[in-house]
Specification:
This protein has 78 residues and is an all-alpha fold. Helices cover 77% and strands 0% of the residues.
Length: 78
């Protein structure tokens, strides 16, 4: 199966593109690590598949609406 056919079939079955699915999955893992650990942002970024804390922070902020640090502070306070 080619890449395009796979992406179309994936979208039909799952309801989002493979890239969107992977991003959401990575962000869910990151949220758990932010809430349950004191790992530095760089380590969390690496663990969820980002090359840098800056790129991870940018994606996290775009999708979650807060920086990872702000999200962590709120999660720790709850």
């Amino acid at each position: 199966m080619g890449r395009t056919a796979f992406a179309e079939r994936f979208r039909d079955v799952v309801g989002e593109t493979p890239h969107q699915y992977l991003t959401q999955w990575r962000l869910q893992l990151a949220k758990r690590l932010l809430a349950e650990s004191r790992l530095p942002l760089q380590r969390i970024a690496g663990r969820v598949g980002y090359d840098s804390a800056a790129s991870f922070s940018r994606v996290f902020s775009q999708h979650v609406g807060r920086t990872p640090g702000a999200w962590r502070r709120q999660a720790m306070a709850s």
